[in-house]
Amino acid sequence: MNAKSKIWIEKDGKPVFGDGRATLLETIDRLGSINKAAREMKMSYRHAWGEVKLIEKRLGMKLLKTQVGGRKGGGAILTAEGREFLERYHRFRDGINELVNERFEKIFDL
Amino acid sequence: MNAKSKIWIEKDGKPVFGDGRATLLETIDRLGSINKAAREMKMSYRHAWGEVKLIEKRLGMKLLKTQVGGRKGGGAILTAEGREFLERYHRFRDGINELVNERFEKIFDL
């Protein structure tokens, strides 16, 4: 037996950020493009873009810096604020599984 | 902003126990009947019974003591083992939200 956990952030009672959205932002940043990230994550550009806008609106924070045009077309990378937010999210999130499992094993004598 | 968490127990990579199943077992025990518990939880008797059998099979544990017939019809209550398991589940589960929120507030400076 082992314990599993799912963690997310809410604002005003609405889910605003979790692992899926973290991965989306990180993929956009890594590939430098919402379009390429959407393709890699098998979602439509429209959906990916809508997710980013929703997160930014709910958090009241600009997460992506987008550039239009240029020789290679537009691009998108994380803002400093977005990078800081993701860094904190990971610090918060990454230890949780371990924490939950330690507690589980202690209480269930495993 | 606040953090939310969902916690469950797996065995051999399959989900076996969480808040929904804990509530089902507790409702059966409180009402002394799978049938009444199913009605209160708005599920079919068949589904409730199937859930109990599934949990017992996956945990390798007899959780409910059922009695057939008698003047008031059959009844069901938790076995000592079932009661012990639920008690541990609550000890494990009930502090997690607080733990997760403390961590969240510390990391996000809230």
- Give the CA-CA distance, first to last residue of chain A: 8 Å
User: What is the alpha-carbon Rg of chain A in Å?
Assistant: 17 Å
Number of strands of chain A: 4
Strand content of chain A: 15-25%
Q: Strand sequence of the main sheet of chain A, in spatial order? A: 1-2
How many helices of chain A?
A: 5
Structural class assignment of chain A: alpha+beta
- What percentage of residues of chain A falls in helices of 4 or more residues? 55-70%
Question: Can you describe this structure?
Answer:
Two copies of one chain form a homodimer. With 110 residues, chain A is of the alpha+beta class. Helices cover 56% and strands 21% of the residues of chain A. Chain A has a two-stranded antiparallel sheet. In chain A, strands 3-4 form a two-stranded antiparallel sheet. In chain A, α2 (34-40) crosses α3. Chain A is elongated, with a radius of gyration of 17 Å. The termini of chain A are close together. The interface between A and B is medium-sized, with 25 and 25 residues.
What are the salient characteristics of this protein?
110 residues, elongated, alpha+beta, homodimer
Summarize the structure.
2 copies of one chain form a homodimer. The first copy, chain A, is an alpha+beta fold and 110 residues long.
Please describe the topology of this protein.
2 copies of one chain form a homodimer.
Chain A: E1 2-11, E2 14-18, H1 19-31, H2 34-40, H3 45-59, E3 64-67, E4 75-78, H4 80-94, H5 96-107
Antiparallel strand pairs in A: 1-2, 3-4
Helix pairs in contact in A: 1-2, 2-3
